[in-house]
Amino acid sequence: MPQNPALPGTAGHATLAPWRKGLAQLSPAYFGMVMATGIVSLAAHMQGLVLLARVLFGLNIGLYAGLWCLYLLRLALYPRHFLADLIDHLRAPGFFTTVAATNVLGAQAIVIGQDTAAAVVLWFVAVALWVMLTYAIFAAFTIKPRKPTLDRGINGGWLLAVVATQSVAVLGALVAARIGQPYKLEVNFFALSMWLWGGMLYIWMMSLIFYRYTFFAFLPGDLSPPYWINMGAMAISTLAGSLLIVNAPDAPFLLSLQPFLKGFTVFYWATGTWWIPMLLVLAVWRYGFQRFALRYDPLYWGAVFPLGMYAASTHEMRLAMGFDFLALVPQVFLGVALVAWLGAFTGAMHSAFATLRGTPHPSKP
């Protein structure tokens, strides 16, 4: 979910009001705030913290509506910047946060708000966004004449395409569990197809990202928080697989695939778990040994979301497959995710006020 502070044309906006300069440079990945808030809310609901879950749900509705207003305003006032982001190798994948955020809010609506109709509407919106963004962004990457080298053009933020795909599968599975025929089978099949496609997309992208990791020079600034999506993409794949397992009794084709579903769900969870120590080691190297400044950046929401998703997906997998020995894991990671969310939210508020005042913002997330 990279953010480039030097967008084309922003130098000429030095005399603009602070909020207009902030709008011109708004990160395409800012819907990560909705993703993070939503999954922490859902994980809290799973652990019986109903009041906290509802408060975060209400907050998330406001955040979602507010961010859409900002994005549409940016498109209207700064269309060149907006469209330039859509073909930028580092910034464009951030737009996939709109898909994931829409699906996460839909999951909150159906699980916490018990509003299936709203969830269905949000799911259709998310599917439409997924189709438009997937083929617009990757077609642009394919045909653009000038392209960056691998080490300058890819990072963990690319895996937001996987998260977006799997989020469609998650909300689709939740919707399928609550509707009747004749659409229950079709929605389950579509969710299964998206789950499989998301897994294939992860393999493609992760191969390139891991190659970039190990064969190109790596600076502290290159280790942006979206690298946590390496784990988050696997966590949401685990959640989608677990929900499909739960839906299997109502869909004969899922029942016949149950051994495959269970095997790959554990595979996704194990892969995501492998990433956690690796990411912690790299974080210690970045902030401890390299003394990289720890200041608020909207990209930090890309680290909060995977923590909450790991808590939610582990809880759901435990229920779907009877892994009671994992009961403590989602509780611990929910606590970590809540601390991370509070830090990022505090930093976001300070940053917003600093932008409106036109002063530098030194706060830490």
TrEMBL record:
Its main location: membrane. Signal peptide: none annotated. Keywords: Cell membrane, Membrane, Transmembrane, Transmembrane helix, Transport. The chain crosses the membrane at residues 29-46, 52-73, 120-143, 155-177, 189-215, 227-246, 266-285, 292-312, 332-356. One of its GO terms (molecular function) is sulfite transmembrane transporter activity. The keyword Transport applies. The keyword Membrane applies. Gene3D superfamilies: Voltage-dependent anion channel (1.50.10.150). One of its GO terms (cellular component) is plasma membrane. It comes from the Bacteria. It is a multi-pass membrane protein. InterPro entries: SLAC1/Mae1/Ssu1/TehA, Sulfite_efflux_TDT, Voltage-dep_anion_channel_sf. It is found in: Cell membrane. Belongs to the tellurite-resistance/dicarboxylate transporter (TDT) family. This is C4-dicarboxylate transporter/malic acid transport protein. It comes from Acidovorax delafieldii 2AN.
